[in-house]
Amino acid sequence: MRLLSIQVGRPRPVPWRRGTVTTGIYKKQVEGRIMLRPHNLEGDEQADLTVHGGWDKAVYVYPSEHYTFWRAELPGMPLPYGLFGENFTTEGLDESTVYTGDRFSIGSAVVEVTQPRMPCYKLGVRFGRPDMPQRFHASGRCGFYLAVVEEGDVGAGDVWKLIDRRNNTMSVLDSYRSYFEEAG
């Protein structure tokens, strides 16, 4: 389990449909080491703090393995890491094997898995496809959020070490499915 890439971004206005929306979903890769703070990565911001960011959504993680699926789903579209708005692109972690409450050390930081990411219309903005939130949901490839338990520096190539599994009954994927079963 390893951190392949780190992305950060700041909110910016972008045209969408007949207006403009402000979003922080556009992320750029960071080279070297970066500080992971209690509410986000250094240099990263969220546009709408009512649904993104905060202590329980400080960092968004998306598995690199999902990009293979999306390359088949969206042929010809460039798919650089960070396209889904993730801060961390990982290898060897996915929603079926990671549980809410899992704690990991990464670099000198400690993080805790808090919840799956729910699709929102800003995926459509980022991809230029209004159907992207529905496609994302149907795929079940949601990624997950982290809370920062101990701030520290992180960098691409860092190994994720599981240090505590506080809840082994609900994987992130099960949590995601459960949310939509209850809401539906």
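That was protein one. Protein two is written in the same sequence-then-structure order:
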Amino acid sequence: MAGNVYMLEGDGAGNIGASVGDDGIVIVDDQYAPLTDKIQAALKGITDKPVRFIINTHYHPDHTGGNAYFQKQAHQAQDNVCKRLESGGGIGDGGSIHMDTKPAPHEALPIITFDHDVTVHLNGEDIRALFFPAGHTNGDSIIFFPHSNVVHMGDDFVT
């Protein structure tokens, strides 16, 4: 934990960032669909507040698989993430994942999209999602929590 931002360790598929406070929860990425119950339970272990927003760092299913489940709360992503989820297709944008995916169901598509950047004002943070066009995919965003001094980079930084 740094400031009001928690890290939920992923199931081999990246980590989830969670800004938690009086206004609710903002999560960054939501892993694979079968993990949503575990993710929700982990969040309930931190707070009883609802998830208010989900921000996807990119469109790969290990970062967007829980979208349909969490969509009931809120959801946003960079424009290209929505386009790729909607159309499906290959995932091999120079990364290590090379497979074809089916178009995502309507309920898994972002409700809010942005071109270059967007700011969510919750929990005493000005949470900034910044489009990173030369990243891991053509729809990458880096999420900055300035008050907590945390950056969530999705797959743009992998150790």
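The first helix runs from residue 36 to 44. Keep this in mind for the problem set.
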